[in-house]
Design goal:
It contains seven helices and two strands, in the order H-H-H-H-H-H-E-E-H. It is mostly helical. The longest helix has 19 residues.
């Protein structure tokens, strides 16, 4: 994790990640205090510290040297380009939501709503009501799936079912 003032300086300066900050830009806004490590920001690029924190080599991170912190965050962190499973310390995959996946889910939901609202379209609607699209995988894909319960879903909880049965009466 990087100090918020360091990240802010990279944002304001639009400095490339592979370059240390210029000393005059290492200042704290009113009401904030620079951390003790702040002087090192003028000699060590943020990219080097991020690589060390993720146990990656500078070589593995060199494609980010000329990039901005915004690009690094959206493509490298949220986009999953630099967070390999081995750096998480977990023995399972880690899901990092991506903005375009959320947008696609919204489009798919709006489409289903529009189809359900129109009697002519509704009669052509598939019985398979669950849709999944992996935006990182190529096409074609099976998008429509038969609806099935997700293990551990609240809908299988007895208290939940009892509550909704009483409301239905």
């Amino acid at each position: 994790m990087q100090h918020e003032l360091r990240v802010l300086a990279y944002l304001v300066q639009r400095a490339p990640l592979g370059q240390p900050l210029a000393p005059p830009s290492i200042q704290a806004p009113a009401g904030m205090v620079l951390p003790p490590e702040a002087p090192s920001w003028a000699s060590v690029a943020i990219l080097d510290d991020i690589a060390a924190a993720l146990c990656l080599t500078r070589k593995e991170m060199e494609r980010w040297e000329a990039r901005s912190i915004e690009e690094f965050y959206s493509e490298g962190i949220c986009g999953g380009a630099i967070v390999p499973r081995s750096t998480t310390g977990l023995d399972r995959e880690v899901i990092v939501p991506m903005a375009h996946q959320s947008a696609m889910a919204g489009i798919m939901l709006a489409t289903q709503f529009a189809i359900a609202a129109d009697p002519e379209l509704r009669k052509h609607r598939s019985e398979q009501v669950e849709a999944r699209l992996n935006v990182l995988a190529g096409l074609p894909q099976q998008v429509a799936w038969p609806r099935r319960r997700t293990p551990g879903c609240i809908c299988a909880d007895e208290d939940y079912q009892t509550f909704w049965r009483t409301l239905a009466r």
